[in-house]
């Protein structure tokens, strides 16, 4: 889960782009475009360059077209143009996230993070993803992350759902139980 | 919080015995924004309304706004320790408070945590009750039928309150609103000797909202002095606490009272005062960006008070049969005395009119009466009790019947009083009688009277036996006469103490004769 909600406008454009790509049978190309855009806009400078209101809209649009040129699928390029014409270029950096959100939802896929005290090997990770997938009846894609402060065990976060099997979590729950005035 | 080694050991022992690599599943969210005691959280997709939310450092919050992609919640603790980006966890629990006998005699906050320094309350998880409950349904209720005596002549005679009634106490600041409530609590000692185990004892909950800490300490001390604390719970959300605590305190107090109501006991709840609760609610709602309405209150401020006061009710005798899950015995009741503070006597402001329309009557207190020495400063002309008459004891009903009219006539003629001897005889008589009745209804604070005392005093006043007494001697006469009655006519007084005694001509003759005998020995 990203730490911030997407703006409703970005969500709409993302959904619309996904629908257009689906109809045109160009999902794979657009998905590639979106991956590229996401990678570019991960950079703060790139983000502020397209959303800076002090730069005229057509200059910003020209800048984007020049940077990506013919790399983008016509549908993606059109999305940029529509955003520019409506004066909403500032939502462009969020459109890839919104597109992928729709993509995941339609594919029944959930992205999540598996945190563990010791590094997880590939097999364990895919086992974990498969068992969670069976439980949720969804395709689970996990990213492994090492977090020594968990002391032991694994903690998986999927969206706003957290499955805590870590030692740290158990200790915290025990602490809460001990300090709870109603158990005294 | 003090931890005791043996308790820690027992918790750890259970933990060790039950150890397995269990996984907990929880809902999490990220704090987007925090400030002024409210927080917005992204995530928590399955959050419930009024669910408790936990922040790092043990700070709790309550979800109030469930929006498309964020949850607005109020913080019920130190807001300074919550930062943007913190992880918030949904606890899956609706906000609840401990209830039960262990709370009696204690001062607790709106979450039931002790404030009086007498150590942990010691309730268990089974004692927890959600603070928001639905009110009893129509079939689970019955009309009020038993009196809830305040011990104040002016109220018990003319504005009688029944068990299960909601009677508003309204007036400007410094007109004795709290005093009436405290006297009513003290007077409940007579119902069961002040022993909370006695099933006849009316239990009391005093909810202080937005009051000065010093006032609450004062109330506690006075109740202790008069032996009223053993059957009373004080829920305190003082002016210095978060607005959220002030707004949930009345619901918490009611949840504590409901436990007794549902077990067939009688409870008196004082909300002191609902104006401040409405202020706190307005603050929280404006910070959560709910649209403001009249006087900047949110649109549901009427419901804020109506859903609270609907929970005061007299349950049907067979309530336990109708709904065995909720009620363990029928016939219980919650009587509530909500207090509203007006500005410059303006009862047509938003909150006063709302609460007047919700309650079953109001006791009006007036500043000019208060300063003229009429205390309690009840304006009997515009104070009413819409349902309490049915619960008044028959003897009191009979004796006090003419009182309201006598006083109304007196007030109408009062302006002529300055003409003195120029008035005709009947006008003079009305004025004479009225002045004595007003004097008779004055009563000192912390001196609630028994039913019998009130009946004989009001009888001698309204039957004209005091008309030849100087006005300033009326109160002394009444007090000494009641003492005399208990000395010489104890049997009659005991009879009048009983609720079912009917007033008869024989009783009237006996009291009149006693009064005339006493009059001869009374030195003016």
Query: Helix tally of chain A?
Result: 8
Kindly identify the CATH topology of the largest domain in chain B.
Rossmann fold
Number of domains of chain B: 3
Percentage of residues in helical conformation of chain B: 25-40%
SS-derived structural category of chain B: alpha/beta
Strand order of the largest sheet of chain A: 2-1-3-4
Task: Strand order, main sheet of chain B: write it out.
Answer: 8-12-11-13-14-10-15-16
Greatest chain-chain interface?
A-B, 26 and 39 residues
Element-by-element helix/strand order of chain A: HHHHHHEHEEEH
Uncertain stretches of 5 or more adjacent residues of chain B: none
Number of domains of chain A: 2
Query: Based on helices, strands and strand pairing, what is the structural class of chain A?
Result: alpha+beta
Q: What CATH architecture label of the largest domain in chain B applies?
A: 3-Layer(aba) Sandwich
Oligomer: heterodimer
What report would you give on this structure?
The complex is a heterodimer of chains A (184) and B (524). Chain A folds into 2 domains: 8-104, N-terminal domain of the delta subunit of the F1F0-ATP synthase (Peroxidase, domain 1); 108-183, no CATH class. Chain A is built from 8 helices and 4 strands. Chain A has helices spanning 8-24, 27-41, 44-51, 57-68, 74-85, 95-107, 122-136, 167-179; strands at residues 109-116, 139-146, 154-158, 161-164. In chain A, strands 2-1-3-4 form a 4-stranded mixed β-sheet. In chain A, strand 1 (109-116), helix 7 and strand 2 (139-146) form a beta-alpha-beta unit. In chain A, helix 1 (8-24) crosses helix 6 (95-107) and helix 4 runs antiparallel to helix 5 (74-85). Chain A is elongated, with a radius of gyration of 21 Å. The two termini of chain A are 38 Å apart. The model of chain A has no long low-confidence stretch (mean pLDDT 88). Chain B is built from 18 helices and 16 strands. Chain B has helices spanning 5-17, 153-158, 177-187, 189-192, 213-225, 243-261, 274-287, 301-309, 319-322, 350-358, 367-371, 394-400, 403-413, 425-441, 451-462, 474-488, 490-497, 505-521; strands at 24-35, 38-43, 51-54, 60-66, 70-75, 87-94, 96-98, 107-108, 128-130, 168-171, 203-209, 232-237, 266-272, 333-341, 361-365, 384-385. The mean pLDDT of chain B is 93. The chains are: A alpha+beta (184), B alpha/beta (524). Chains A and B meet through strand 4 and helix 8 of A and helix 1 and strand 1 of B. Strand 4 of chain A pairs antiparallel with strand 1 (24-35) of chain B, so a sheet runs across the interface.
């Amino acid at each position: 889960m990203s730490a911030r909600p997407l703006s409703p406008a970005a969500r709409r454009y993302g959904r619309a782009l996904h629908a257009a790509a689906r109809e045109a049978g160009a999902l794979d190309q657009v998905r590639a475009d979106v991956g590229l855009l996401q990678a570019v806009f991960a950079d703060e400078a790139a983000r502020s360059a397209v959303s800076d209101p002090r730069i005229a809209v057509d200059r910003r649009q020209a800048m984007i077209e020049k940077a990506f040129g013919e790399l983008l699928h016509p549908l993606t390029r059109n999305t940029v143009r529509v955003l520019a014409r409506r004066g909403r270029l500032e939502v462009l950096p969020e459109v890839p996230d919104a597109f992928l959100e729709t993509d995941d939802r339609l594919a029944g896929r959930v992205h999540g993070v598996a945190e563990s005290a010791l590094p997880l090997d590939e097999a364990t990770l895919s086992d974990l993803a498969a068992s969670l997938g069976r439980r949720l009846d969804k395709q689970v894609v996990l990213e492994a992350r090492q977090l020594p402060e968990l002391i032991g065990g694994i903690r998986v976060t999927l969206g706003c759902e957290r499955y805590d099997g870590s030692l740290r979590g158990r200790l915290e729950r025990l602490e809460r139980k001990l300090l709870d005035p109603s158990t005294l | 919080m003090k931890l005791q080694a043996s308790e820690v050991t027992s918790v750890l022992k259970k933990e060790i015995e039950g150890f397995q690599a269990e996984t907990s599943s929880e809902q999490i969210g990220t704090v987007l924004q925090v400030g002024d005691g409210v927080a917005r959280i992204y995530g928590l997709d399955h959050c419930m309304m009024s669910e408790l939310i936990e922040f790092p450092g043990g700070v709790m919050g309550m979800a109030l706004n469930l929006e498309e992609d964020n949850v607005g919640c109020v913080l019920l603790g130190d807001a300074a320790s919550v930062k943007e980006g913190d992880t918030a966890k949904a606890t899956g629990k609706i906000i609840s408070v401990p209830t039960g006998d262990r709370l009696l005699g204690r001062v607790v906050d709106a979450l039931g945590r002790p404030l009086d320094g007498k150590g942990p309350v010691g309730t268990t998880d089974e004692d927890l009750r959600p603070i928001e409950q639905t009110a009893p349904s129509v079939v689970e209720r019955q009309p009020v039928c038993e009196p809830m005596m305040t011990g104040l002549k002016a109220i018990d005679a003319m504005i009688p309150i029944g068990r299960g009634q909601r009677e508003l106490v309204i007036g400007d600041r410094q007109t004795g609103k709290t005093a009436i409530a405290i006297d009513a609590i003290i007077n409940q000692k007579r119902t069961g000797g002040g022993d909370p185990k006695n099933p006849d004892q009316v239990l009391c909950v005093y909810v202080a909202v937005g009051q000065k800490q010093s006032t609450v300490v004062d109330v506690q001390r006075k109740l202790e002095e008069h032996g009223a604390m053993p059957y009373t719970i004080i829920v305190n959300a003082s002016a210095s606490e978060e607005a959220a605590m002030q707004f949930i305190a009345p619901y918490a107090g009611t949840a504590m009272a409901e436990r007794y109501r549902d077990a067939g006991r009688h409870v008196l709840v004082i909300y002191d005062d609902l104006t401040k609760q409405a202020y706190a609610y307005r603050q929280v709602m404006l910070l959560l960006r709910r649209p403001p309405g009249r006087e900047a209150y949110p649109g549901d401020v009427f419901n804020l008070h109506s859903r609270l006061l609907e929970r005061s009710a007299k349950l049907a005798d067979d309530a336990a049969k109708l709904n065995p899950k909720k009620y363990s015995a029928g016939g219980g009741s919650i009587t509530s005395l909500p207090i509203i503070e007006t500005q410059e006597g303006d009862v047509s402001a938003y909150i006063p009119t709302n609460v007047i329309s919700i309650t079953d009557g109001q006791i009006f207190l007036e500043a000019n009466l208060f300063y003229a020495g009429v205390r309690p400063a009840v304006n009997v002309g515009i104070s009413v009790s819409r349902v309490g008459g049915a619960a008044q004891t028959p003897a009191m009903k009979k004796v006090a019947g003419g009182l309201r009219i006598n006083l109304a006539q007196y007030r109408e003629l009062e302006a002529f009083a300055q003409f003195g001897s120029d008035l005709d005889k009947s006008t003079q008589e009305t004025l004479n009688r009225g002045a004595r009745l007003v004097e008779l209804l004055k009563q000192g604070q912390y001196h609630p009277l028994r039913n019998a005392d009130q009946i004989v005093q009001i009888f001698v006043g309204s039957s004209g036996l005091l008309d030849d007494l100087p006005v300033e001697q009326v109160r002394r006469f009444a007090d000494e006469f009641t003492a005399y009655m208990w000395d010489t006519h104890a049997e009659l007084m005991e009879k009048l103490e009983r609720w079912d005694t009917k007033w008869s001509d024989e009783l009237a003759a006996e009291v009149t004769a006693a009064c005339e005998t006493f009059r001869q020995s009374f030195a003016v």
